[in-house]
Amino acid sequence: RKGNFEHFMQKEIHEQPDSLTMTIRDHLKTIRRSRRILFIGCGTSYNAALAARPVVEEHSGIPVTMEIASDLLDRQGPIYREDTAIFVSQSGETAYTLEALEYAKSNGALCVGITNTVGSAIARGTHCGIHLNAGCEIGVASTKAYTSQIAVIVMLALALGVDSLSTQQRRNAIMDVLYNLPSKVRDVLKLDRDMKELAALLMEEQSLLVFGRGYNYATALECALKVKQVSLMHAEGIVAGDMKHGPLALVDETLRIIVIAIRDASLNKQQSVRQQLKARKGRLIVMCTEGDAEFMCLIEHCLQPMINIVPLQLLAYQLTVFRGFNVDQPRNLAKSVTTQ
Ligand code: F6R
User: Fold this and answer.
1) Taking the CA atoms of the chain, what radius of gyration do you get in angstroms?
2) HSE on the CB side for 157, CA within 13 Å?
3) Which of 218, 264, 297, 298 could bond to 51 as cystine, CB 3.0-4.6 Å?
4) Predicted structure pTM score
5) ipTM here
């Protein structure tokens, strides 16, 4: 709209103080000064932010809160001018995320978009943003966008912490490993055949629990989301520390459970979870680190979620094929959810 101007050209000439401010404004500085970072998204995009949250907390030193977009809107949760709200969305068009963006903007927060779609509503509506550049994702179930979202948020976290000398070594180590990540992912893709065998074993099951914690809490949620979304098997991702507060009651000799017990800071606790589940005769599938020592030096724990989800994506895929459901167009779901 031209507003009070006669022509668009005239309007755009007059807009230059604002457009230049947006272009040269140091958004990183503004994020660093914010009192809180909120990650806002739906489904897999929410899970990706959850997976990267520990790295953001560690490197920015800023409190991070997680918001499922619809829930934030239902509550009309408080958002302030001193907040940075980061909107994570593969399509950049998800209705709830978009409405949450309008809400955060009207409350004066700095709004950052992380999308995979240049020119999408969220990319256009945010003050600044990052393009995933993951390439077009056609399958309704988000897979490659998930790992790219985590990678981008990790890089953002490192950029936020760049002034801290005490974490410089760790930042460099993470960057080195990030560059090697594609080849690590290539390695885990070789597990396809094993995942097919596992899927053959699980295909008749009614239900699957996935226990994760720490860096892999989000991996458990995302694995369960993928399994239910495409294979139409009930699956639930559980933060393992909460096991005794309810989920343990479900465990008997019939229930299949995946325990993510990768060699990281949570390993000892996960081993104890594993023993307790075993003591209740749970039928466990344990996801663990191969060739521990070597793998350990190569992969920073905080980057593990990008590796660990891959075999689980393959598992969800193979389960769906075995169960005879539509992989790319799961029942009742759409790639871009533009209605509420
Ligand atoms: C899960 C999945 C959905 C989307 C969700 C958000 O595999 O595809 O949960 O992640 O609908 O979509 P975007 O990221 O486009 O906002």
Assistant:
1) 21
2) 30
3) 218
4) 0.93
5) 0.98
Average pLDDT, the chain: 92
Q: How far is the CA of 90 from the centre of ligand 1 (A)?
A: 7
Find out whether the beta carbon of 115 lies less than 6 Å from any atom of ligand 1: no
**Nearest-atom index, ligand 1, CA of 226:** 7
Token representation of residue 49? 């932010």
How many A from CA of 44 to the centre of ligand 1? 5
Residue type, 217: Y
Q: What is the pLDDT of residue 181?
A: 93
Please tell me the distance between residue 42's alpha carbon and the centre of ligand 1 in angstroms: 6
Closest CA to 277 of 303, 297, 255: 255
Q: What would the DSSP string read from start to end of 58-105?
A: HHH---EEEEEHHHHHHHT----TTEEEEEEESSS--HHHHHHHHHHH
Phi and psi dihedrals of 285, rounded to 5?
Answer: -120, 115
The pLDDT of residue 143 is: 96
Beta strands in the chain (DSSP E): 36-41, 64-68, 83-89, 110-115, 128-131, 207-212, 234-239, 256-260, 283-287
* Tens-digit pLDDT profile for residues 238-295: 999 998 899 999 999 999 999 998 888 888 888 888 899 989 898 999 888 876 544 4
90 CB within 6 A, ligand 1: yes
